[in-house]
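Researcher: Next sequence.
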Amino acid sequence: MVEAVVERGRPKVVRVLARTEPVYIQERALTFSQEGEDLILARMFEGRSKGFFVDVGAYHPYRFSNTFLLYNAGWRGINIDATPGSMRAFEQMRSEDINIECFVGNPASEKTFTCYNEPALNTGSQVVLESRVLPSSHYWAVGASTVRPRSLSSILDEYKPRDVTIDILSLDVEGCEEEVLESNDWSRYRPEVIVMEQLSTDVEESMRHPTTSILKDRGYRLVAKAFNSAIFKRNDR
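Model: Next structure:
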């Protein structure tokens, strides 16, 4: 079922109710992800009207979102982003989710979190920050703050409802993916599917990527690839 929803002051959104199959409108698939990752997820979970996701580096309720299509299909989850004030929009547009403003990573030391004029580029990675030092006519840093990370497992301990399992982990944290993965307790929290940013990697490069090695060691395999992301599935599923 497809229902068009138009609200004053907000973009036109097509709401998908009680289904996760890809929806086609005028022969075009509806997607909110940058490269259609949400359509791949919808195909993988076809027929499932309910599910639970964890979106780390959620950034925005619908722009570049891997989980908004699922939210509109009836799924619910946890959205996490370190950008100051980012959760206000989530509370307005995704009030049935659990929305947390936090930097996810190793809590042993503080991090410098740098914000850009394009918030999708905000990062806590020094490596990524140094790679962006060349002047750009489009993107530049607008500020930085010191943050104390929380491990992913500690956040899930506090906020994940006890009666649900995690179906999808979406991870897009601008170079901090390894740190987030290492901060999880994989003996207790094992999402069925993980979609993660791997910038500009082909399939062979993705197979050799450090985050792929981390997930392989934890019982996951690469099952799908977009230009800037990779999708993994648990070996026992």
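Model: Residues 169 and 194 are 5 Å apart (CA to CA). Residues 2-105+159-234 form a domain with the Rossmann fold fold (CATH 3.40.50.150).
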